[in-house]
Design goal:
Largest sheet: none
Distance between the termini: 59 Å
Helix content: 55-70%
Number of strands: 0
Shape: elongated
Structural class: mainly alpha
Radius of gyration: 28 Å
């Protein structure tokens, strides 16, 4: 048993009513605070697990402390596989005063505590002051700490120096760092060199990198090779369709098209080349942009419902857009029906291409 002298060295971090919010995020019964017997039992476990092990502890005493730490983690519904991962780095797990103190700091900053811990289990080894320092650093930079860390729990493990380096690198590139990080918190996990490569790649292709990234921060998640492939595909498609615009104009108007995979772009090109009138070749870029907002399934459903002679009439882009926009099904139902009509053989080659896109 842990001796009285050792127990006196333990910091008491017994659970209190204000802990209920973060406890609930782990799925702990909200009625715990009213169940005094259960609360006393878990607080006894916590007190044992708070002990900071040193050579004065005998093997059986050390085992008692480690068992208490494990029991509390299981109380928080931490899965066995995650416990194994934690033991690989912290064989004796960690003192519960540090752990609970860190959880309270995260809760104070309105983090989704269970989500952060379950995605960055080994971060529970950080002292509360370290967690606070990391979160205050994000706020000092003008960032919403809760939004950033909840979306990208890895940020909790990045040092303030690393965060500032990445923030300053974005600023030096001409980016609105707060805007970019707020929309895409994963950018804080990129090395500065990687971010520079992505920006330079846009510029080398003749694109206005800063404007595109500010309109579509997720463009920074795209690999340079993927961007080059899509620009090349759009260039070829515009020549094939004899459209009067250019790939650079289209991307400048609608940067989100860079997030389309090549199969989706191929389906759109097939629709344009086979089903639309020649007059659609002179449609202004902003009108094409509007047409791209349309969920692809709406076009598939509209084309599948037209009779063969109606299809041969080849509507303008504006006409097809208006007809397709009538389909008001929810996204899941639209997808189910689009797959159904194309699997049944409707639309021939277009149907095959659509299914390949959905399977990608």
């Amino acid at each position: 048993m842990v001796t009285a002298e050792q127990a006196r060295e333990v910091v008491d971090v017994a659970l209190v009513e204000t802990d209920q919010q973060w406890l609930s995020s782990f799925g702990v019964d909200a009625s715990l605070s009213t169940q005094q017997a259960e609360l006393m039992e878990i607080n006894h476990t916590i007190k044992l697990g708070c002990a900071h092990l040193d050579p004065s502890y005998k093997d059986d005493e050390r085992s008692e402390v480690v068992d208490a730490r494990e029991q509390f983690l299981k109380f928080l519904n931490i899965k066995p596989a995650m416990l194994d991962d934690l033991r690989a780095q912290h064989p004796a797990l960690i003192p519960l005063d540090n752990f609970i103190g860190s959880l309270r700091v995260m809760d104070e900053f309105q983090l989704d505590v269970a989500h952060v811990i379950k995605n960055r289990m080994w971060s529970i080894g950080y002292a509360p002051d370290t967690i606070r320092k990391h979160l205050v650093n994000l706020q000092t930079l003008g960032l919403d700490a809760a939004r950033v860390v909840n979306a990208n729990p890895a940020v909790i493990s990045l040092s303030p120096e690393s965060i500032r380096e990445k923030y300053e690198n974005m600023t030096n590139l001409g980016l609105d760092a707060v805007r970019v990080i707020s929309y895409i918190p994963t950018t804080l996990s990129y090395a500065p060199e990687s971010l520079c490569e992505k920006v330079e790649n846009f510029q080398a292709l003749g694109l206005d990198a800063i404007t595109i990234i500010h309109k579509l921060p997720s463009a920074l998640t795209l690999a340079p090779e993927s961007v080059r492939q899509k620009v090349a595909f759009l260039d070829r498609s515009i020549k094939l369709l004899q459209w009067q615009g250019s790939a650079l104009e289209l991307i400048g108007q609608y940067p989100a098209i860079l997030g389309f995979n090549l199969q989706k772009l191929a389906v759109l090109r097939r629709i344009a080349s086979k089903y639309l009138s020649e007059a659609s070749r002179s449609v202004p870029v902003n009108k094409v942009r509007s047409a791209l907002f349309m969920p692809l399934e709406k076009y598939i459903l509209e084309l599948s419902e037209q009779e063969a002679d109606e299809r041969s009439a080849q509507p303008s882009l504006h006409e097809l857009y208006n007809r397709a926009n009538v389909h008001r099904l929810d996204a899941a139902t639209r997808r189910e029906r689009a797959l159904s009509v194309t699997t049944a053989g409707s639309l021939g080659r277009l149907g095959i291409m659509y299914r390949e896109y959905r399977a990608a």
